[in-house]
Amino acid sequence: MSQAPRPQLTLLYDGGCPLCLREVTFLRGRDQRLHPGAERLAFVDIDAADYNPALHGGISYREAMGRIHALRADGTVLLDVEVFRAAYQLIGLGWLYAPSGWSGLKQLADGLYGLWARWRLPLTRRPDLDQLCRCRSEAPPDHP
Predict the structure, then answer these.
(1) Whose CA is closest to 65, among 6, 137, 7, 139?
(2) Cα 25 to chain center, whole Å?
(3) pLDDT score for 143
(4) Can you name the residues that pair with 78 across neighbouring β-strands?
(5) By three-state DSSP, how is residue 71 classified?
(6) Mean pLDDT over all residues of the chain?
(7) Residue 2's pLDDT is what?
(8) How far apart are the C-alpha atoms of 91 and 41, rounded to whole Å?
(9) Distances in whole angstroms, Cα of residue 121 to Cα of each of 11, 33, 117, 128
(10) pLDDT tens digits for 73-82?
């Protein structure tokens, strides 16, 4: 019996972000329809209590919450709009993000993504990054 192929790209996403969840739902659904049983994308919820940076390129919770990251099967880390270019390419929609890699437009796309990443938490009515990181580092209270 053969094993399913390893995903080509693993996206680290914020499971507490409604917009991030919408994007993951779209990407996962399209990938499953195009590649049933041999999906090219995998997803890791960095907001999950068991997120372990050591298993995901050493990318800390703070780093992953600050901007989108993905890992290629070979361990190469992708950041920002490059993540979307790679993911959309794997689900047959690479043309949507292709212009974001063109000279001149790449800087604009990366700059706009940087603004989005900076304002994502307040725009989705979430606590700021420092508060989220403090909450994660606090030990759970003891219960009798």
Answers:
(1) 137
(2) 12
(3) 41
(4) 70
(5) strand
(6) 90
(7) 55
(8) 9
(9) 18, 31, 8, 6
(10) 999 999 999 9
